[in-house]
Amino acid sequence: MPSLVSASSTSLQEEPALYAERPEWNDVTPLSQYEDAAPIAPIFYSAEYKDATDYFRGIVKTGEKSERVLQLTESIIRLNPAHYSAWQYRYETLLALDSPVDVELKLMDELAVSFLKTYQVWHHRRLLLMLTRKPAPELKFIAASLKVDAKNYHTWSYRQWLLAFFNDDDLWAGELDFVDAMLTQDVRNNSAWHHRFFVVFQSGLREGETDRARIIRRELTFVKQNISLVANNPSAWNYLRGILDTKDLPYSRVEEFVRPYALTTHDSTTDLVDLENPPPPPGAQLPCPAAIEFLADIHEKEGGKDRILLASELWRSLADEHDMIRKKYWEYRIREALKRVK
Amino acid sequence: MPVSSPPPAPRPTPTDAFPTSTSQTQAETESILLQHIPSNADAKQGLAKQSHMQFLVRSLVQGFPSRYTSQDASQPWLLFWTIQAFSALQVGLDPGNKQRIVDKIMAAQHPDGGFGGGPGQAAHLLPTYASICTLAIVGRPGPGGGWDQINRKKMYDFFMSLKQPDGSFLVAHHAEVDVRGIYCLLVTATLLDLLTPELVSGTASFVASCQTYEGGFSSASQPYYAATPSPSPSPPPSSTSDSTTSAKHARRLLEKPRPPLGEAHGGYTFCALAAWVLLLPFRETEGEQDAQPKIDVGNLLRWLVMMQGTEIELGGFKGRTNKLVDGCYSWWCGGAFALLEALGVGGAGSSAPPAGPSSGEEEEWDDMDGKMVFYRVRFAPDTQAARLIDTLFNRKALQEYILYAGQHPAGGLRDKPPKNADAYHTLYCLSGLSAAQHRISVATSRREQLRKAWVAGASQDTKISESTLPEEVRMKVFQEALAWTEEEGGSLIVGGTENRVSLIMFFAFTRRMQNATHPVFNLTITHSEGLMSYFYGQNLPPRAK
Questions:
Q1: Residue B26 and residue B239: Cα distance in Å, rounded?
Q2: Where is the composition biased (Pro residues) (chain B) (predicted)?
Q3: Between chain A's N and C termini, which has fewer beta carbons within 10 Å?
Q4: What is the total count of domains within chain A?
Q5: Scanning every residue of chain B, which has its alpha carbon at the shortest distance from the alpha carbon of A205?
Q6: Whole domain around residue A280: which residue ranges?
Q7: Is residue B8 part of a domain?
């Protein structure tokens, strides 16, 4: 729920009078919401909100687009940032007045932080950016707002939109470093993992990214190292799967890496550091169900009766011991796999 | 019955001795949830139907406190959440209150089509869904009943005005594109007989493009366009203006790249999957199989089951990887499994325990310490009954989450303790509970009945578009939407039958009320039937006993 308190920048001296009390609004006829005096399931609005929205309905009816409409819609937005009609009307008014976009963007810098969780602040920003066509400063703004809420869905998709829409090499240039920084803060931040996938695999080829084999090696190394930092991190395992799926690579390519994570104990017999296959860290809680699942998938994809039976044993161990909440799913996997070898 | 020791405390989510802010919030949540696991049989918690009902009635009659001002642009939603929750609790409304609700909804209809968040607000796809579904529950044909006052032609024009060249729709003019809007539009169009080929063209491939590498779906995807006729290597940025008509002819949508914006998410996944299911009747008629958009159902299933929290999270669902469980995902994720069955995954019959490496034990559904009584106590693994009881998610655990953590002691349901209850979570927890208790699937026999009873050409008078649906497809839309049927013997009720929501009701042995939740619409099946049979001009054959 958005905080209404932090949004208010008004001090006691400039306590806003109701629109009904402002002489300059005399010419507008406020419209109350319902003709029925007592509609079912009413919301108990504050006097301030009721007043502003009554005037807003009045304005919408006459179709007025003027400076004071910007003031009125701002009042409503500060009281209820999810009032999409106020946003929509505000945008149309900005266009009609040819209002300076940088001023509006400045206001948005403030509102975005206060109302991080509403769709409208982020979408309005998009509309403005399509007018200014100056995406570069936005990256910093987004990074700052992710400091407040590192998994905010709107913020991340706004960043992805910005990159894809303007599709400018300079914009993309710092993205991997940005993801690294986010994952260093919290390696379990799935939004950051998704962003990495978006940048590396889903946005077309850019300068320096054309050697795909090298990119795949780089990404595999990256994700393996992160699993070797925190073994039970579903975000990282999903990323590993994502790389292999999207490039149609066999899961068996990482079998050697995965195997120690599916064991119950750490294998301390070797001191050799294999950079290709970083081992589970000493603190890791093993076995890692994600690794057991992965091994089973390797077996299943390799196929053949023996491999399917090996996969089934692993699924069985998940069903009965390591991941019992999903028992029915693991049994389903066994059944489906066995169907194919009959 | 022998008294056995309580089960061991569930294992915390592993942190691998490497705490981050995600694992810290997770641990805090787990410690709170742990306190909600009943320690013994006496502490077992029933569904407090009476107090949830009072919670809902209070808002309906007295109104919503001022913090609900944030929902001022969602007034039809407040009504929908409230009265659909009544349906789940088998509470009916008197004619006077029904009329007041109809009147309030109709005041939100926009003069240019569609419904807004309240009177004088702009039309928007989300409140349009909420309005139509509310009218399905409390409305009726005739003057003042709502159904005949829906301006279908203008609604259709509103829908078309939102359409984008990539097959998606804005949720409102100048607003964002996302799959919630597409779900809301397709449900509304399906219920009101507004589907046309031009309306849905390209939409399935847009939906498919929102599937992420994790398997779930994101909010939207970003289109790239090439100037026709030859594709350019570096596509120019698209202009996402609202006017689609000129753009449609000037640019060609590239198949790739078409990246999802945002990560896989429970709410978007439900909407995308339900939209996909609603578009199935259009598939076979559209050209070659190869050219048809595809989704990765196996990866979707995997993602959905992974969203279910473990024992320490009481088996609630989360909405994204490495996020916290939340009662509303009981429906968005838990409810998605019935939709998967429509795609042939995990239906009764495919979920019987395997014959492979044996677990060496029989299923027992009665809990060890006897704190739970199940509707169906035990079964032999290979029976039809077993197949009906088994689902690919843990339906028992999900019910426990809702009962133990989802209920607010003062009435209403919630995200998680210690949060407050609200109308939104009350509905989606109850819908999720219904999805976990009952087994709903598309019944071949019902589909056949509907096919036989179909009267071609019957419909509302208004012509809504030059683009018309072939009668065959129109019939299929109707059939597929209304062939959903509750499987008898497929219920599993944690805590005993008094916790049952969405009861099947029998009237005088002739008519059967299907009160179970429709997996696509989130209406009761009976309400879905009422509205659709009216707008498609069909008489429904009685359900076979």
A1: 41
A2: 1-13
A3: C
A4: 2
A5: B234
A6: 250-342
A7: no
Contacts of A139 (CB under 8 A, 6+ apart): A159, A162, A171, A174, A178
**A 29-68 residues inside an 8 A Cβ radius of B:** 31, 33-36, 39-46, 49, 53, 56-57, 60-61
pLDDT at A35 over 90: no
Contact A71/B at CB under 8 A: no
Nearest-10 crossing angle of helices B179-191, B125-138: 40
Nearest-CB residue to A187 (from B20, B70, B393): B20
Considering only CB atoms, B390 lies closest to which of A45, A92, A328, namely: A328
Answer whether B218's CB lies under 8 Å from B263's CB.
yes
In this prediction, residue B5 carries a pLDDT of: 59
Domain contains A123: no
Give the bridge partners for B123, in sequence order.
Answer: B116
CB atoms within 10 A of CB B378: 13
Q: Which pLDDT score, from 0 to 100, does residue B463 have?
A: 79
CB-based contact B423:B53 (threshold 8 Å): no
What's the ipTM? 0.94
Q: Which domain holds residue B271?
A: 44-226+241-354+379-535
Residues of B that are catalytic = 265, 320, 323, 326, 328-329, 415, 422, 425
Q: A277 vs chain B: nearest CA distance in angstroms?
A: 18
Low-confidence ranges of chain B (pLDDT < 50): 1, 230-249, 349-381, 506-511
How far apart, in whole angstroms, are the C-alpha atoms of residue B417 and residue B33? 7
Is B426 contained in some domain?
yes
State which of A99, A120, A155 marks the end of a domain. A99
Chain A positions in Cβ-Cβ contact with residue B74 (cut-off 8 Å):
82
| Direct distance between the N- and C-terminal alpha carbons of chain A, in angstroms, rounded to an integer | 54
Q: Choosing among A238, A301, A314, which should be mutated to test the B contact, i.e. which has the most B CBs within 10 A?
A: A238
In a domain, A18, yes or no: yes
Per-residue CA distances from A186 to A195, B20, B212, B369 (Å): 14, 5, 21, 40
Domain limit, last residue, from A83, A99, A115 = A99
Note whether A203 and A183 are within 8 A (CB): no
Q: Which residues contact B79 (CB under 8 A, 6 or more apart)?
A: A40, A41, B101, B104, B105, B130, B134
- Render pLDDT for A199-254 as a digit per residue (tens, 0 to 9): 999 987 776 677 889 999 999 999 999 999 999 999 999 999 999 999 999 999 99
Residue A251 at interface with chain B, using a CB cutoff of 8 Å: no
Q: What residue of B is the nearest CA neighbor of A184? A: B20
